[in-house]
Amino acid sequence: MAWELILWILSFVSVISLIAMTAYQLICLSDLEFDYINPYDSSSRINSVVIPEYIVQGLLCTSFLLTWHWFPFLITAPVTYYHVKLFMNKKHLIDVTEIFRQLNGEKKQRLIKLGFYLSLFVIVIYRLVITAVALLLEEDMNLLDSGTL
Amino acid sequence: MQPMGNDKPIPGRPTSPFSAAPPVSSPFLSSGPVVGSEKTAATPLLTPFSSGTQATGYRMPAPPPTRFNGPFTPTQPPSFHPTQDAATYQQTQAPRFPPPSQPATPLRGPPVANSVGSFQPQPQVPTFRMSPPHPPAVQSPPGSNIPPPHFLGPRPGPQSPFQTLSASQASPHFRASPYIAQQGVIPPPPIGPPLGVGSREQMPFPHIGQQHVGGGPMQGLVEEFQSLSVGSIPGSLDSGIDAKSLPRPLDGDEEPRILESYPLNCHLRFLRLTTHTVPSSQSLLARWHLPLGAVVTPLAEVPEGEEVPIVNFGTAGVVRCRRCRTYINPYVTFTDAGRKWRCNLCSLLNDVPAEYYCALDATGRRLDIDQRPELSKGSVEFVAPTEYMVRPPMPPSYFFLIDVSVAAVQSGLLEVVATTIKSCLDGLPGSPRTQIGFLTFDSTLHFHNLKSSLSQPQMMVVADLDDVFLPLPDDLLVNLSDSRHVVDAFLDSLPSMFQNSANVESASGPALKAAFMVMSQLGGKLLVFQSTLPSLGIGRLRLRGDDPRVYGTDKEHTLRIPEDPFYKQMAAEFTKHQIAVDIFAFSEKYSDIASLGSLAKYTGGQVYHYPAFQAATHHEKLRYELARDLRRETAWEAVMRIRCGKGVRFTTYHGHFMLRSTDLLALPAVDCDKSFAMQLSLEDTLMTTQTVYFQVALLYTSSSGERRIRVHTAAAPVVTDLSEMYRQADTGAIVSVLSRLAVENTLSHKLEDARQLMQLKLVKSLKEYRTLYAVQHRLGGRFIFPDSLKFLPLYILSLCKSAALRGGYADVLLDERCATGYSMMILPITRMLKLLYPGLYRIDEILTKGTDNLDESLKPLALTSQCLDARGLYIYDDGFSFVIWLGRMLSPDIVNSILGVDLSSFPDLSRDNNISRRMMRILKALREKNRSSYQLCRIIRQDEQPREGFLLLNNLIEDQTPGSSTFVDWILQIYRQSQSS
What we know:
The structure holds 2 protein chains of 2 kinds.
Chain A: H1 2-33, H2 39-66, H3 70-88, H4 99-146
Chain B: H1 17-20, H2 27-31, H3 38-51, H4 83-93, H5 104-108, H6 110-116, H7 124-130, H8 163-170, H9 178-183, H10 197-202, E1 226-229, E2 271-273, E3 278-279, H11 282-287, E4 293-296, E5 310-311, E6 333-335, E7 340-342, E8 349-351, H12 373-376, E9 379-383, E10 397-403, H13 406-410, H14 413-424, E11 435-441, E12 445-449, E13 458-462, E14 477-479, H15 484-497, H16 508-519, E15 524-530, H17 565-576, E16 579-585, H18 593-601, E17 606-609, H19 615-631, E18 634-644, E19 648-654, E20 658-661, E21 664-671, E22 676-682, E23 691-701, E24 707-719, H20 722-727, H21 731-746, H22 751-777, E25 782-785, H23 792-800, H24 814-824, H25 829-836, E26 839-842, H26 844-849, H27 854-857, E27 873-877, E28 881-886, H28 892-899, H29 914-929, E29 936-941, H30 947-951, H31 967-979
Parallel strand pairs in B: 3-24, 5-9, 10-11, 10-15, 15-16, 16-17, 28-29
Antiparallel strand pairs in B: 1-25, 2-4, 4-22, 6-7, 7-8, 9-24, 11-12, 11-14, 12-13, 18-21, 18-23, 19-22, 20-21, 23-24, 26-27, 27-28
Family (chain A): Belongs to the cornichon family.
InterPro entries (chain A): Cornichon (IPR003377)
Transmembrane segments (chain A): 7-27, 54-82, 114-137
């Protein structure tokens, strides 16, 4: 059971990092919108975290698949597909020349992703707690069984 | 757009025939006398409406007097009054436009209007001209610089109910075109000759049909719109449209007459709105299906004597609003005895700097207004103090990136470029600070050391394309006057230097990087001369676009966007470092203009395309255009922002620039040949102000090294009525914005989709217009359209047939399509309209007989092959090139005199005989009308296939070409679609 706990702890960490990266991108975009930073900085900052985000998300998705967690896998799969599609079309990076034209779309896309990550976060936390509690209970049971208590 | 004297506006006009006689009253003049007489205005207001034989059920429009409310009590700006203004206005306009805003007059100023007696024709003019002396603001609140209330102002168009009558009777200068006769639903009144006789001669079709003029039921109706009868006779094949009567923009661009009602606005050459109104609500905007926006040419060329005045505030600093940063302009109002001024955009009260203080006179206007151009002119230029600089003003700098691969040598390009640059060295702006540098490249990069202490330039070759480095830290970009002799020596030797080169490769990408390294410190202008497809190093491109199967699929648009992200990234870097890129492309084969052009697109540059360049034929064109590019006044390291009043916001921008923030355009270099379009959106659901102000500000470094701010201010009324928006519509600006939208659309969609989008917009707007009138008027069988937009259907048709949007794979070469697309994104309105509806002139008679007045003898013809007579000699001018068409039965005399035995397609036409000399005069006159590019002559003979079709017949946009309809069919199509619900 311990490996299950490790899996959920890892997913917990990666979901938090996904949320952080998406929020960072959103902040960059809205800073740009309100003219706090210039488009060059904004796009290079955003682009620097796009690939890490995709990698973390992809790893998370595959780990769910490999550990036969169908429900979380099916939830993350569409996002993975979306990422792969963007990457294949070479549209994953922000284009600094067109950034203002794409601003609203990009923001919306990231907001939706953020919402998605948040719900994933809830699921992961829930599973983490469940696993942890189950593990603790199991240990208790073992202790009871072994007559230590 | 072009007021034709027939038309529309005022609902509820009296329809007595007399009213058509023009009591010429200038909209704004008439408003003067009666300032402050709102109360009295109420009674007479009724008069015109009740007394006339009001034939229609026209609703009154939203009563204009509401405009008097609010903070902007309309008072007559003193500057409206100079007699000279009034006089010129009257003289020039009065005869031309029958009765402008006649009913408005009574509304506004009963005593005057009544005494004027709308029933007296012309002699009235003097009376009105005298009106200015009426005290401008008797009890005026301080704020005298408010534009005239909108209902008086923005009706420059003719307001006559009886177009035909007023056209023929009232206006000697009226340029009636035959269709006028037809569109009138009202039978032409018995008085007056049937439409200017002289004007007929100007038309290609002297035969004017009046057979369509409707009959009884419409009689006495106030005509607000133009209409065409499309009722076909049942059973006949005839479409029912008289092709000759369709409106054609033969006179080219005609600016709407806004300045008459808003004399403090900047000139229309700088800023034109698609409709000179702002809708008051979102729902009204939603019914306006055309773009709502502006076309700005901040540095448009001005005729001698109308230069933009330069203002130096000295120690006071540039006077701007504290909150919205608006620059001081003629529309601000001074209060508190001149110690405060109220911003016209955000209505904030600002303090007047002590140095700028001046007392006010009794009417609240500053005493020094005449000495201060910023308070009396719509366009001014401020000298910017050091706060407006992030670094010392840069010197003008030019860096030439020249492809010297074998194609460039063989075509003779190097020779032409070298001699042209050399001849321009003295004319480069900004001497003695001007910087210059050269880099040549084929499969390697050749740097040229132009250090002033050298006697001969040194060439350094860098062969490492993967990791480009500069062989010298400086001396690659040098001061021209110091190193002049080295530069001269370099240009002399350039053509011979690579004479024996057999290198076919072109390492453009690395060369661009190298140029970037050289220029990044200073910025400036980078001119790239590209003869082949970039084939080496980073940014190499491949042949694409030769697959016809991709057309019509979803991938079609990818051919028109840059293939390699390198070019966009490079463009972004260039803009960041204030470098503008101009692309000169010469290849006869595919050279991926789509990718190369993106360098120009994001840096405020321009794309010049000379397919299959040969020095012998194209040298004049290249020489002229390169010299113009180098010599024209250029604004360096510029940023442009357009501000507008509360409630509206500019959202999208179209042109060659890069957005640095949501509303700031970064323009490393900008000049008179660049214009920018932008679209407006409403922020609030309901506008509360009566007037919306726009202010374009361009902050730039002049070639002389001075930081300047060029400010153009304009005002437009807020309207609640859709028909008013149509009335004030500006076809030129609309077409300009629409074509940019269409070109942008082709970058993400199929060509077919882009064309359909344009058609859809046209149909929607005409349908909306139709619903305004169709109910009352039972207009079955008539195609109706606003007078201001009468050319729009034709322009949209020609837009769909332009090289950028026409057909599919085989119709236009991909490079040419992209190059045209890039040009259309920057063209100022007049040139855009010329490109869309080129001029076609018959000149054989002028050649044989000569003429005194060339301008009058050159009569533009309709663009249809029916106009081509086998005995004639025609010249076709689209602003970029001439095509000379020789009829089959043209007199051999003419042919021999102008051509001799020269059979080439770009012959030398100058010969020593009268006919040839006249020919050269005509060409010169036509070229002078458009000095932005050089029109090269091509000669084609009738029935010379396939060149005739390719060069001329396909461009006769009123004719049927494969996959597109004729003008008549188009009108019918639009008519049917606008009728169906």
